[in-house]
Amino acid sequence: MELNEKLFKALANKTRLEILRWLKDPENEIHVPTCVPISEEIKDYGGVCVSDLVNQSGLAQSTVSSYLNLLVEADLLIAVRHGKWTFYRRNEVAIQKLGALIKEEL
Length: 106
Hints:
- InterPro entries: ArsR-like_HTH, HTH_ArsR_DNA-bd_dom, HTH_MetalResp_TranReg, WH-like_DNA-bd_sf, WH_DNA-bd_sf.
- GO terms for molecular function: DNA binding; DNA-binding transcription factor activity.
- The protein is of the alpha+beta class.
- Helices cover 61% and strands 13% of the residues.
- The chain has a single domain, classed as Arc Repressor Mutant, subunit A (Orthogonal Bundle).
- The protein has a 3-stranded antiparallel beta sheet with strand order 1-3-2.
- The longest helix has 14 residues, at 92-105.
- It is globular and about 45 Å long.
- The mean pLDDT is 91.
């Protein structure tokens, strides 16, 4: 991983940072009613449904989707598609590398 503009752009927004924080511990951080418990989404689909993140943030679906896409492009999130639904989880390996890189470079 290298320090680049796309990565820092992804981190330069409060809601995108909150999404990363919520997905660090989604069972305890996402406090909205869901059709399927968060723990089952993670177990069955490998992540959290975009609608849960929309409800948590209170923002429009299109806004949250653009934020999620930017985080995926920056390699901070992993998107897993199941049918018409997309589920998101943190890319823990990339986040660990980012922490080490910041410590080393900055």
